[in-house]
């Protein structure tokens, strides 16, 4: 899990048969969707001013559609060398 507040709160109820593995801060290679968002921001969503919430949603949907059309980009994100995380007893 990343270290978002909802993952680290004392109110989080984790079943006894699950061992959480907390990801280190600033480790996007361990959370692949961060690479997807970074790519979309860099290519389609940055340096823009949106007039409304609907404009933000439309731009995000348009960016997702462009990404889906670029299968080689999706493959390259998935083929990156990822860090290996081990669990110690």
Structure description:
- The chain is an all-alpha fold and 89 residues long.
- The chain has one domain (5-78).
- The protein has helices spanning 5-8, 32-45, 53-68, 71-78.
- The mean pLDDT is 81.
- Helix-residue proportion: 40-55%
What series of H and E elements makes up the topology? Answer: HHHH
- Give the radius of gyration: 17 Å
Summarize the main sheet: none
- The N- to C-terminal Cα distance equals 18 Å
Beta-strand fraction estimate: under 5%
Low-confidence stretches: none
Q: Give the total of domains.
A: 1
Oligomer state equals single chain
Mean pLDDT, as a whole number? 81
Number of helices: 4
List keywords for this structure.
mainly alpha, 89 residues, 47% helix
Layout of secondary structure:
Blueprint: H1 5-8, H2 32-45, H3 53-68, H4 71-78
Helix pairs in contact: 2-3
Give a brief description:
This protein is mainly alpha-helical. The chain contains 4 helices and no strands. Helix 2 packs across helix 3.
């Amino acid at each position: 899990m990343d270290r978002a507040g909802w993952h680290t709160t004392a109110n989080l109820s984790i079943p006894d048969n699950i061992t959480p593995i907390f990801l280190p801060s600033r480790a996007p290679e361990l959370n692949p969707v961060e690479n997807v968002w970074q790519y979309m921001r860099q290519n389609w969503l940055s340096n823009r001013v949106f007039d409304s919430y609907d404009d933000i949603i439309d731009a995000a949907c348009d960016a997702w559609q462009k990404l889906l059309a670029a299968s080689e980009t999706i493959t390259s994100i998935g083929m990156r060398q990822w860090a290996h995380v081990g669990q110690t007893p």
